[in-house]
């Protein structure tokens, strides 16, 4: 939903005023904490210390006793303590036994039981382990029946594990003891000081931590395999389940971790504060990773492989390690005051993670990967009807993740990268250092961070802040120039705003690159750094330069802006991709062509002609990943178009399959290129010939030289064969389930089952997904959603499309944010037809009381369905 800048500014001011004023009304009786209630509580409470005692048995429940000690400035009103769905055995307040006033979301401590000054509350309780990835999650390994637990608290789920003031600006210290089965290990923020044998259990004792926000504290326990390494500046450990330990490459983990710790110590000029560095690979994880202080968790699905890691997989691992490590300073040491500041944590970690990867690992081209992946996601997000400013109000914890998207992570990171160029690298680093020193173990706001950078630069950044952080949208820049006698006679950089509703023109620093075609290909003839602002910036320094064949006004990707190539440059890009030596520029030119497709200005079939000519010869591994990703997206558009594109798809589909398979064979001497091409082939294969070829590879009848058909690849083939109902695919699936009984095998089997083009299977799993009381773990429900309606199964999607839209409001009200983040993004139907667009438009008009996240997903689905129809209309056939 678009909002004008004035309304947004008023909303921000109102939110700030609400946050600053203590709430006078009782706290709302629901599962979430409002910003106003959090502000009221933090105005009264200070100096919080937690003493936590947990008893873990491996069974479905755990028990604990928590003592909260805190200073209270005003005892004239009740005080709430967050605790979710527990059974309370006893409670004492300041030494007096009391009957809990508890609504299953929070405990209300009566004013009569409190006192001004130091207070102590002790609560003994029991609770079910979580199975949705929040709180203290429990998983039973199907391979060996071992039980594993881990905690996950962001944004506000610590109270699903223990009684707590679950808000970021009430930092506290934590001292814990854990009684667990004797074969378990326990990891927390500090290293244990004692382990006592008690029969079949052990009692782990940990010293008190430094001050942390509740979402940064952690406790993980289970019979994990543990690797240790002391070669770096701090002790490092790596944890994984016993049944997947063989899939872990600890030397890579420790190598990147060690290099990152050295880099960040030096860059920030503030030593790492948490003494040791544990990293845990955990199952059923909701996100990619989480920056718990000194006990970081990583999703198994993103970092476990049943084959040697490719270069791309290693780079992804290095990048995520660096991202979470940056958070140890920016997020854990200095923390935002409220969830409206979450974007800065994530933006900064994305920026610093890429910088650290580029400067401390073998992946010196990390910024190229950032451009083609993260930054493009931000551009897409920023051109949607749901775009929003980087800094947005967050009324309650229910909304904490409403705007956590590519704008939060990648536009924010791009903005920081641009600011670094604008201020200078050393000035930027000094400002960050000053910020970390000044606010260590405290909470800070955006103004504090920008103020530290402004002081270092001796510049007022308030105008820059307003332009970039409080106003949405991406600007377009274009070069406008004329030539006379083979030389540039005039050159202007034009900037335009996306719409009247988002009129902001921004200041930023970019490089303009001029290129000419010659015997050596397309080469750089001149580049110039320019700071521009407003609608028009003259660049007299380029007058007299050789008239270019191509101008790129964001050379080397300093700026955050959509580039609109002039006609001559666009034609050069389309005709001469293979003549561009610079991989980053080549990536940018590919992106310009793809932008043309998505805006329905370049026919999709013209783009695919360019792919067939240029992609097989691509020699840059990172760029090849970008190009093949665009090929997959192009194929998905064709699949979504249904019967109207069937003729063209029947023609071009086999050509793309043959291109990918030929390139797979040609790359037999380079496993990285070969696996990238074979993965592409797998994702394109749909013709009978290609599916038969996959079946032969699975059986061993066809051997591709150099290709290792690992268990992961076997499941990918099984999934593809079932997706297209290849004869005998169901039997192959059953046989593979017998072969691989791991939890990842079970998940792959589930995906291959649900993806079958079978109306009965779809109906069964649609019922499971809609059953909010199901006993199935959320990880299985999410996997089913992901596999339910692939692009080419439009007819099956259509069978229940109206029903799903009709039930969307009801499910949204009954389910929580974790469920709806998956459901709304995967289960809202689109058909790439005018009728589908109209149906979604009608739903947008009717369903006005959806939660913010679900409403956004509906709007995005509608807009992307319109885009698909426009792309279909723009196609040309010769």
Task: Explain what this protein looks like in three dimensions.
This protein is of the alpha+beta class and 878 residues long. Among the domains are: 337-469, Neutral Protease Domain 2 (Neutral Protease, domain 2, Orthogonal Bundle); 476-571, Sandwich (Immunoglobulin-like); 800-878, no CATH class. Strands 5-4-8-2-1-11-14-13 form an 8-stranded mixed beta sheet. Helix 13 runs parallel beside helix 15, helix 15 (621-640) packs parallel to helix 17 (671-684) and helix 23 (778-788) packs parallel to helix 26. The protein is globular, with a radius of gyration of 28 Å. The model is unreliable at 1-23 (pLDDT under 50).
Summarize the structure.
The chain has 878 residues and is α+β, with helices and mostly antiparallel strands. 44% of the residues lie in helices and 20% in strands.
């Amino acid at each position: 939903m678009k909002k004008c800048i004035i309304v947004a500014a008023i909303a921000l001011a109102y939110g700030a005023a609400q946050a600053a004023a203590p709430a006078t009304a009782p706290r709302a009786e629901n599962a979430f904490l409002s910003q106003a209630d959090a502000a009221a509580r933090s105005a009264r409470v200070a100096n919080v210390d937690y003493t936590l005692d947990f008893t873990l048995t491996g069974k479905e429940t755990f028990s604990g006793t928590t003592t909260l000690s805190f200073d209270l400035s005003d005892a004239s009103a009740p005080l709430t303590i967050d605790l979710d769905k527990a059974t309370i055995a006893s409670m004492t307040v300041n030494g007096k036994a009391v009957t809990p006033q508890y609504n299953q979301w929070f405990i209300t401590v009566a004013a009569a039981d409190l006192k001004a000054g130091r207070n102590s509350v002790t609560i003994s309780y029991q609770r079910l382990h979580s199975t949705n990835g929040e709180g203290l999650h429990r998983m039973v390994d199907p391979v060996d029946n071992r039980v594993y637990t881990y905690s996950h608290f962001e944004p506000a789920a610590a109270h699903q594990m223990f009684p707590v003031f679950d808000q970021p600006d009430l930092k506290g210290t934590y001292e814990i003891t854990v009684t667990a089965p004797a074969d378990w290990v326990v990891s927390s923020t500090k290293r244990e000081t004692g382990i006592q044998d008690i029969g079949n259990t052990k009692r782990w004792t940990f010293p008190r931590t430094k001050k942390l926000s509740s979402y940064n504290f952690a406790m993980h326990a289970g019979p994990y395999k543990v690797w240790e390494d002391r070669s770096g500046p701090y002790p490092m450990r790596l944890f994984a389940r016993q049944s997947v330990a063989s899939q872990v490459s600890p030397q890579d983990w420790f190598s990147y971790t060690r290099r990152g710790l050295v880099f960040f110590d030096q860059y920030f000029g503030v030593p790492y504060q948490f003494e040791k560095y544990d990293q845990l690979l955990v199952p059923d994880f909701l996100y990619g990773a989480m920056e718990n202080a000194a006990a970081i968790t990583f999703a198994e699905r993103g970092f476990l492989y049943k084959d040697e890691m490719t270069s791309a997989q290693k780079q992804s691992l290095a990048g995520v390690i660096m991202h979470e490590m940056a958070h140890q300073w920016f997020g854990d040491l200095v923390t935002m005051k409220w969830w409206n500041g979450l974007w800065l944590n994530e933006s900064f970690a994305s920026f610093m993670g890429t910088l650290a990867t580029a400067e401390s690992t073998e992946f010196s081209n990390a910024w190229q990967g950032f451009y083609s992946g993260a930054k493009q996601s931000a551009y897409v997000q920023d051109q949607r009807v749901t775009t929003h400013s980087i800094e947005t109000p967050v009324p309650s914890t229910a909304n904490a993740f409403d705007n956590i998207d590519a704008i939060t992570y990648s536009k924010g990171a791009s903005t920081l990268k641009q600011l670094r160029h604008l201020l200078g690298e050393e000035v930027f680093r000094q400002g960050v250092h000053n910020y970390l020193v000044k606010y260590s173990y405290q909470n800070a706001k955006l103004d504090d961070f920008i103020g530290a950078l402004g002081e270092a630069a001796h510049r007022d950044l308030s105008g820059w802040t307003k332009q970039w952080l409080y106003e949405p949208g991406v600007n377009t820049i274009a070069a406008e120039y004329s030539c006379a006698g083979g030389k540039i006679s005039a050159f202007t950089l034009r900037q335009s705003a996306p719409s009247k509703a988002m009129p902001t023109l921004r200041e930023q620093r970019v490089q303009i690159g001029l290129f000419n075609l010659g015997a050596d290909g397309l080469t750089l003839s001149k580049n110039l750094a320019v700071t521009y602002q407003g609608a028009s910036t003259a660049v007299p320094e380029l007058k007299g330069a050789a008239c270019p064949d191509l101008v790129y006004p964001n050379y080397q990707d300093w700026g955050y802006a959509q580039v609109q190539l002039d006609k001559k440059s666009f034609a050069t890009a389309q005709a001469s991709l293979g003549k561009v030596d610079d991989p980053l520029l080549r990536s940018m030119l590919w992106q310009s062509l793809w932008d043309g497709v998505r805006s329905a200005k370049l026919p999709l079939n013209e783009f695919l002609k360019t792919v067939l000519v240029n992609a097989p010869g691509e020699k840059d591994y990172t760029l090849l990943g970008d190009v093949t990703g665009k090929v997959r997206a192009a194929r998905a558009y064709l699949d979504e178009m249904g019967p109207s594109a069937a003729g063209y798809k029947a023609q071009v589909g086999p050509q793309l399959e043959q291109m990918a398979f030929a390139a797979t064979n040609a790359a037999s001497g380079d496993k990285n290129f070969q696996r990238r091409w074979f993965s592409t082939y797998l994702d394109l294969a749909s013709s009978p010939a290609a599916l038969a070829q996959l079946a032969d590879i699975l059986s061993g009848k066809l051997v591709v030289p150099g290709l290792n058909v690992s268990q992961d690849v076997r499941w990918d083939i099984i999934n593809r064969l079932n997706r297209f109902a290849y004869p005998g695919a169901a039997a192959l699936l059953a046989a593979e389930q017998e072969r691989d009984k791991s939890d990842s095998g079970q998940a792959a089997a589930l995906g291959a089952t649900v993806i079958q083009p079978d109306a009965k299977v779809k109906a069964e799993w649609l019922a499971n997904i809609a059953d909010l009381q199901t006993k199935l773990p959320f990880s299985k429900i999410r996997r089913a959603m992901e596999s339910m309606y692939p692009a080419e199964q439009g007819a099956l999607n259509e069978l229940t499309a109206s029903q799903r839209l009709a039930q969307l409001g009801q499910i949204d009200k009954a389910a929580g944010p974790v469920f709806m983040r998956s459901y709304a993004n995967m289960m809202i139907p689109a058909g790439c037809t005018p009728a589908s667009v109209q149906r979604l438009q009608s739903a947008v008009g009717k369903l006005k009381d959806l939660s913010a996240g679900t409403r956004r997903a509906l709007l995005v689905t509608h807009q992307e369905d319109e885009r698909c129809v426009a792309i279909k209309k723009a196609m040309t056939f010769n």
